[in-house]
# Entry
Amino acid sequence: MLFGSAINKSAVFAPVLSPDGAVSLRLILREGEKFSPISSRLAAIIADPDTVNAIYVAWEAIRVRIGTSINGLSIDLDDESFHGLSRNKLRLEGDSISLAAFISFYMLFNNQFSNYQSIVATGAIRKKPLGYSIGRVEGVREKLEKTCLIKNPHQKTAIVVPKVNVKELDIANSVNDIWTVNQSLDFHCQHTAT
# Structure
């Protein structure tokens, strides 16, 4: 069974770099047959143990906030994203998918992003001795440059990055809203598009 947000129908995308440039992968939640934060088909196209760990850390970070109600839900890619990667024989690497995974779960229980049809998020959630924090992302400009400058008149888009990365974006000219996430994993709107 596919899960949309109980509060809104926003689509969450994780931008990744490929040999052909930036690609946005749509994340979805699936009800799993077994207890696993990552669907088996997503796990099959991950080439880097850090990517698996990043999704688990995102799941743990949201579970600390909302409890066991996410048990049985797994992060997956929508069919178009999965088949696009498979067809091009691409595999996922890196940990910047963790913020998008976190937001996918977060939106089930919080309406902060309810007025957006599309959320594009990149950031690496890190497990620390006293909790969780967000880390700097490499290549944020390359991943998001087109997204910041292209407005879809049919949907409102939020771009979410770690606060330490926001200076790398040309937010004054962004046609989409820019949100940041701080070290406490709290979200703040930095720029509202006009």
About this structure: The radius of gyration is 15 Å.
